[in-house]
Amino acid sequence: MAKTTTCTTQEADSLIPNGPESVPKDRLRMVYGIFYLLGICTLLPWNFFINAQSYFMFKLRNTTLYPEQEGYHYNASTATELQVMFESYLAVAAMLPGVVFMFLNTAATKLISLRVRMISAAVIMILMFGLTIVLARIDTDAWQTDFFALALVTIVIMNAGSAVLQGSIFSLASMFPSHYIQAVMGGMGMGGMLASVTNIAATAFALDKPVDMGFGYFLTANVIIILALGGYLILPLFHFARFHEEKHRRASMSYSRSNSYSQSSINEVSESEGECDASLMGSVKEVNTPMWPVFKHIRMYALCACFTFTITLSVFPAMMANIFSTNHGSGSEWSDKYFTPVTCFLFFNMFDLIGRTLAGVITWPGHNSRWIIVLTVARVVFIPLYWMCNVQPHSDFIPILLNSDIAPMVLTPLMAITNGYIGTLCMMHAPKCVPYEEVALCGAMMSFFLALGLGLGSLISFFTMNFLYN
Questions:
Q1: pLDDT category, 311, cuts 50, 70, 90?
Q2: 109, 269, 287, 436 from 174: Cα distances, Å
Q3: Between 214 and which of 55, 107, 307, 431 could a Cys-Cys bridge form, CB atoms 3.0 to 4.6 Å apart?
Q4: What does pTM read for this prediction?
């Protein structure tokens, strides 16, 4: 067996005819825009479901006290058990399948082509959103528990597809310059912003008709996914995109041939050459690179990304969505109708997007800096601070020391901007730690650890909410 060799980004450039000076331009930043749109699509199920609180609170309301189909506003004092625990169940139903399927997607990089994974995942998401739209138009008052279970099953399937799509997109984006990963991360933040703004607009214009709000809300999400799928399908039309896939393919072929594992493996790579030319952007499976060596190179960023999202999901949205205005119940539209959509969902998604965008401009801590660990661990302080806010219902065991509307309006922007900034830096710096032919696997692995953090955080929130309510 020949000596194992790797290929740096510069060496990969040399594999392209005419050298790196022939790199085409991303004209009008169209490819960047497509990655941004794909980023919006990745967490769309999660973002739209957690922002649709008023819709689900209506669907799960106490129909004995509130039999009417219009004019309902959530009241913590009359909340049903399904209403109180919905966000926690939603987080678990969304994030645990995400972790499992993100891992399967990472393993599938060697078995199933990128194109098949991305298109299949997008179609599954479109179908599940279609079912959700239908449920919004059906009167489910007589079978609330069944609706609750069906909604969770839909969320599980939808987020399984979302996980595969997300991992595949990061694999693809890792073949491009690092700011294309930032485009995906920024798009994920923009997805949250769109969900928040759409929710507030639907709340304002649905005129106290939660069913109409839910229908328009989820229909918007489905249209965005269809547009994102269309964007991916036209990606091969851009010379810039074809160039970077070809660059990665040649680096992978060079890696396989230089390591000379077997004559048959070399023949497989050679045979794939024509297949790649016939169908760009994902027709070729990844080289057979072991996962453990890649993880050892990126472990600092993988674990920091995981811990960052664990801390965030331990309080968002389950706890933050249950922080009520001190004037709740006063009849004020701000306190009773808009406080949670604005201070929780809009503020979080807006400042999370700002953090993800800043990471593309300010890249401190730099590559391999240990300060990223310090910043990540420091965010633990947000958990006890949110515990002391006006979360309702609230256990007498933990005093409400931050009983002010100002508290969540200050904490949420700080929590969100650090989440977006640190998480994006980790995703951008990780591919720089591995040889070029391993960047696609690196992207899939980083996406898995991001999803693992979301899953762990959702589990923590589940137990935390039970602790606060008892």
A1: very high
A2: 13, 21, 15, 9
A3: 55
A4: 0.79
